[in-house]
Amino acid sequence: MRTYADAYNINMPTKLFLITPFIYLELFSISLLVYLFASNKKYWIYLPLILSFIAIIPLTFAFKVFHLGLGVTLISGVIIAYKFAQTFFKERRVSLSFSMQMLDALSTFLGITFRGYYEEHVVGRAIINFLEKKNLTFYGSGAWGFLIIKITLAFLILFILEKYYKEEDLYPLVLFFIAILGFVVGLRNAINLIFL
Description:
- By secondary structure, the chain is mainly alpha-helical.
- The protein has helices spanning 2-8, 22-38, 47-60, 65-88, 92-115, 122-133, 143-164, 171-195.
- It starts with a helix and ends with a helix.
Protein backbone atom coordinates (compact mmCIF):
# COMPACT_ATOMS: atom_id res chain seq x y z
CA MET A 1 0.00 0.00 0.00
CA ARG A 2 2.79 2.42 0.90
CA THR A 3 4.63 1.45 -2.28
CA TYR A 4 1.53 2.26 -4.29
CA ALA A 5 1.30 5.68 -2.63
CA ASP A 6 4.97 6.39 -3.33
CA ALA A 7 4.95 5.15 -6.92
CA TYR A 8 1.76 6.82 -8.12
CA ASN A 9 1.74 10.13 -6.20
CA ILE A 10 -1.57 9.55 -4.42
CA ASN A 11 -3.03 12.76 -2.98
CA MET A 12 -4.63 13.45 0.39
CA PRO A 13 -6.96 12.34 1.96
CA THR A 14 -6.57 8.93 0.26
CA LYS A 15 -2.83 8.94 0.90
CA LEU A 16 -3.48 9.30 4.63
CA PHE A 17 -4.58 5.65 4.79
CA LEU A 18 -1.50 4.48 2.88
CA ILE A 19 1.22 6.07 5.03
CA THR A 20 2.39 6.03 8.64
CA PRO A 21 0.79 5.68 11.19
CA PHE A 22 -2.44 4.40 9.66
CA ILE A 23 -0.77 1.81 7.47
CA TYR A 24 0.67 0.16 10.60
CA LEU A 25 -2.75 -0.01 12.20
CA GLU A 26 -4.29 -1.49 9.05
CA LEU A 27 -1.57 -4.09 8.56
CA PHE A 28 -1.51 -4.91 12.27
CA SER A 29 -5.27 -5.57 12.19
CA ILE A 30 -4.99 -7.80 9.14
CA SER A 31 -1.98 -9.61 10.58
CA LEU A 32 -3.68 -10.12 13.94
CA LEU A 33 -6.69 -11.72 12.23
CA VAL A 34 -4.43 -14.02 10.22
CA TYR A 35 -2.44 -14.88 13.34
CA LEU A 36 -5.54 -15.69 15.37
CA PHE A 37 -6.90 -17.81 12.54
CA ALA A 38 -3.62 -19.64 11.97
CA SER A 39 -2.47 -20.07 15.58
CA ASN A 40 -4.23 -23.41 15.99
CA LYS A 41 -2.78 -24.98 12.86
CA LYS A 42 0.45 -26.96 13.06
CA TYR A 43 2.04 -26.01 9.74
CA TRP A 44 0.70 -22.49 9.24
CA ILE A 45 4.03 -21.21 10.52
CA TYR A 46 5.34 -21.73 6.97
CA LEU A 47 2.61 -19.53 5.46
CA PRO A 48 4.77 -16.38 5.06
CA LEU A 49 7.47 -18.35 3.26
CA ILE A 50 4.96 -20.06 0.97
CA LEU A 51 3.22 -16.77 0.18
CA SER A 52 6.59 -15.17 -0.59
CA PHE A 53 7.32 -17.80 -3.21
CA ILE A 54 3.82 -17.63 -4.67
CA ALA A 55 3.74 -13.83 -4.84
CA ILE A 56 7.28 -12.75 -5.63
CA ILE A 57 9.01 -15.32 -7.83
CA PRO A 58 6.44 -15.67 -10.66
CA LEU A 59 5.86 -11.91 -10.82
CA THR A 60 9.55 -11.13 -11.10
CA PHE A 61 9.74 -12.97 -14.43
CA ALA A 62 7.87 -10.01 -15.93
CA PHE A 63 10.68 -7.69 -14.86
CA LYS A 64 14.44 -7.52 -15.40
CA VAL A 65 16.64 -10.49 -14.52
CA PHE A 66 18.46 -8.22 -12.05
CA HIS A 67 15.25 -7.70 -10.12
CA LEU A 68 14.60 -11.45 -10.22
CA GLY A 69 18.04 -12.05 -8.73
CA LEU A 70 17.35 -9.62 -5.90
CA GLY A 71 13.98 -11.28 -5.25
CA VAL A 72 15.46 -14.77 -5.16
CA THR A 73 18.30 -13.54 -2.93
CA LEU A 74 15.83 -11.93 -0.54
CA ILE A 75 13.55 -14.98 -0.30
CA SER A 76 16.50 -17.35 0.05
CA GLY A 77 17.95 -15.16 2.80
CA VAL A 78 14.70 -15.17 4.76
CA ILE A 79 14.40 -18.96 4.47
CA ILE A 80 18.02 -19.44 5.54
CA ALA A 81 17.43 -17.08 8.50
CA TYR A 82 14.38 -19.11 9.53
CA LYS A 83 16.27 -22.42 9.31
CA PHE A 84 19.24 -20.90 11.16
CA ALA A 85 16.94 -19.64 13.91
CA GLN A 86 15.34 -23.08 14.28
CA THR A 87 18.72 -24.50 15.34
CA PHE A 88 19.02 -21.98 18.20
CA PHE A 89 15.49 -21.22 19.32
CA LYS A 90 13.10 -23.77 20.80
CA GLU A 91 9.88 -22.14 19.60
CA ARG A 92 8.83 -21.68 15.99
CA ARG A 93 7.29 -18.30 16.69
CA VAL A 94 10.67 -17.01 17.86
CA SER A 95 12.26 -18.33 14.66
CA LEU A 96 9.52 -16.65 12.66
CA SER A 97 10.09 -13.34 14.47
CA PHE A 98 13.80 -13.59 13.68
CA SER A 99 13.19 -14.36 10.01
CA MET A 100 10.78 -11.44 9.66
CA GLN A 101 13.41 -9.10 11.12
CA MET A 102 15.84 -10.54 8.58
CA LEU A 103 13.35 -9.73 5.81
CA ASP A 104 13.62 -6.09 6.90
CA ALA A 105 17.41 -6.15 7.30
CA LEU A 106 18.15 -7.99 4.06
CA SER A 107 15.74 -5.95 1.94
CA THR A 108 17.29 -2.76 3.35
CA PHE A 109 20.80 -4.04 2.65
CA LEU A 110 19.97 -5.08 -0.93
CA GLY A 111 18.08 -1.84 -1.65
CA ILE A 112 20.89 0.40 -0.40
CA THR A 113 23.68 -1.64 -1.96
CA PHE A 114 22.23 -2.48 -5.37
CA ARG A 115 19.39 -0.02 -6.01
CA GLY A 116 20.78 3.20 -4.52
CA TYR A 117 18.24 3.55 -1.73
CA TYR A 118 18.92 5.72 1.31
CA GLU A 119 18.59 4.66 4.96
CA GLU A 120 16.22 7.12 6.64
CA HIS A 121 16.71 6.08 10.27
CA VAL A 122 19.36 7.94 12.23
CA VAL A 123 21.22 4.99 13.77
CA GLY A 124 21.28 2.94 10.57
CA ARG A 125 22.43 5.97 8.56
CA ALA A 126 25.19 6.68 11.13
CA ILE A 127 26.50 3.10 10.88
CA ILE A 128 26.48 3.21 7.08
CA ASN A 129 28.13 6.65 6.95
CA PHE A 130 30.84 5.59 9.42
CA LEU A 131 31.75 2.52 7.35
CA GLU A 132 31.71 4.49 4.11
CA LYS A 133 34.00 7.18 5.59
CA LYS A 134 36.42 4.44 6.65
CA ASN A 135 36.14 3.00 3.11
CA LEU A 136 34.83 -0.31 4.50
CA THR A 137 32.30 -0.88 1.75
CA PHE A 138 30.71 -3.69 -0.22
CA TYR A 139 29.85 -2.57 -3.76
CA GLY A 140 30.40 1.02 -2.63
CA SER A 141 28.02 0.83 0.34
CA GLY A 142 28.42 0.43 4.08
CA ALA A 143 24.99 -1.19 4.37
CA TRP A 144 26.61 -4.53 5.18
CA GLY A 145 27.41 -3.13 8.66
CA PHE A 146 23.74 -2.34 9.23
CA LEU A 147 22.89 -5.91 8.18
CA ILE A 148 25.40 -7.46 10.61
CA ILE A 149 24.26 -5.29 13.52
CA LYS A 150 20.57 -5.95 12.78
CA ILE A 151 21.17 -9.72 12.69
CA THR A 152 23.13 -9.60 15.94
CA LEU A 153 20.63 -7.41 17.80
CA ALA A 154 17.59 -9.37 16.62
CA PHE A 155 19.23 -12.63 17.65
CA LEU A 156 20.30 -11.37 21.08
CA ILE A 157 16.93 -9.74 21.87
CA LEU A 158 14.98 -12.85 20.86
CA PHE A 159 17.42 -15.12 22.71
CA ILE A 160 16.99 -13.09 25.91
CA LEU A 161 13.21 -13.00 25.50
CA GLU A 162 12.96 -16.76 25.01
CA LYS A 163 15.35 -17.62 27.82
CA TYR A 164 14.27 -15.19 30.54
CA TYR A 165 10.79 -13.90 29.72
CA LYS A 166 9.04 -16.94 28.26
CA GLU A 167 6.60 -17.22 31.15
CA GLU A 168 5.53 -13.56 31.05
CA ASP A 169 1.98 -12.80 29.95
CA LEU A 170 3.07 -10.35 27.26
CA TYR A 171 5.70 -12.69 25.77
CA PRO A 172 3.55 -13.88 22.82
CA LEU A 173 2.42 -10.33 22.06
CA VAL A 174 6.00 -9.02 22.11
CA LEU A 175 7.09 -11.79 19.72
CA PHE A 176 4.14 -11.01 17.48
CA PHE A 177 5.01 -7.30 17.53
CA ILE A 178 8.65 -8.01 16.62
CA ALA A 179 7.56 -10.26 13.75
CA ILE A 180 4.99 -7.78 12.40
CA LEU A 181 7.37 -4.83 12.64
CA GLY A 182 9.98 -6.69 10.59
CA PHE A 183 7.39 -8.07 8.17
CA VAL A 184 5.63 -4.77 7.41
CA VAL A 185 8.81 -2.77 6.78
CA GLY A 186 10.54 -5.69 5.05
CA LEU A 187 7.60 -6.35 2.74
CA ARG A 188 7.39 -2.69 1.75
CA ASN A 189 11.14 -2.66 1.05
CA ALA A 190 10.91 -5.94 -0.88
CA ILE A 191 8.12 -4.64 -3.12
CA ASN A 192 10.10 -1.47 -3.82
CA LEU A 193 13.27 -3.48 -4.41
CA ILE A 194 11.78 -5.96 -6.83
CA PHE A 195 8.94 -4.20 -8.60
CA LEU A 196 9.79 -0.47 -8.74
